[in-house]
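queue> holo job accepted (flavin-adenine dinucleotide)
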Amino acid sequence: MNTEISIEFFPPQTPEGVEKLRSTRAELAKLNPLFFSVTYGAGGSTRERTFNVVKEIAAEGFDAAPHLSCIGSTRDSIREILGEYKAAGIKRIVALRGDLPSGMAETGEFRYANELVEFIRAETGDRFSIEVAAYPEWHPQARSPKDDLEAFVRKVKAGANSAITQYFFNADAYFHFVNEARTQGVTIPIVPGIMPIAGFTKLARFSDACGTDIPRWMRKKFESYGDDTDSIRAFGLDVVTELCERLLDGGAPGLHFYCMNQSALTTEICRRLSKR
Ligand code: FAD
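queue> job finished
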């Protein structure tokens, strides 16, 4: 496939999960991704586990991009993590604010992701390529679309090299967002985040929480399948592949897959895309 893709993992909690992720990664490596990224629990809850997976990916010869969220963190702790990544030869970081875990009262020394991007640049110059998050359907806490766009532009001006979007199912939202960003002078690539659909109940809950709209026609169809997982999987593959095709035809610079540590759906979507 000619399309440039990247793939996101979360750090497993158990040794079995770590082992399974190795085989998932071996499968997904066949897709020749530009990089594998690894999420980070806000407040540093996965610091060790994220670092371990990142180190493994790098040792396998792939470009590994750790996510790093700043909420609840001090400058010293972020400086220390950047030093560890530098020493491990990491060249790309996904810089985020994150969400404060429930029960954690301290917001720390950073309020928003643009401050983290500024800090990374001030501390490490051009050592890291920096990815930031973008929200075509707007971040759920944004005061207004205008405010959210301005927040995105601030992250870019602070030194981001590229952006990855929250997942969405409405291609028009992506194209509208990219146009708005371009009119604000943003020239960096804005790569759509793609969520392969493995099941509907969890997806619906997660989408509500992160502000992703599941269009009525899709929702109704998924609901009509009930427990018929084969039909859900088949319809999900069709819908997401068509979305990817529309995005790529409309000029999206690549695709970032939220693979949820599974290889089958991402592999199948890419197989279908390669036949275009
Ligand atoms: P920001 O860009 O700081 O924006 C957060 C909110 O604050 C927005 O509503 C914005 O409009 C608003 N805002 C920004 N600046 C200001 C200002 N000056 N005044 C007022 N409001 C402002 N979460 C994790 O915990 N770990 C991960 O690994 C992770 N990976 C992710 C990867 C991607 C590609 C994406 C899209 C999201 C990821 N998330 C992750 C979720 C993310 O942390 C949350 O969406 C979080 O709520 C916002 O992070 P951000 O970096 O987009 O924040």
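queue> The radius of gyration is 18 Å.
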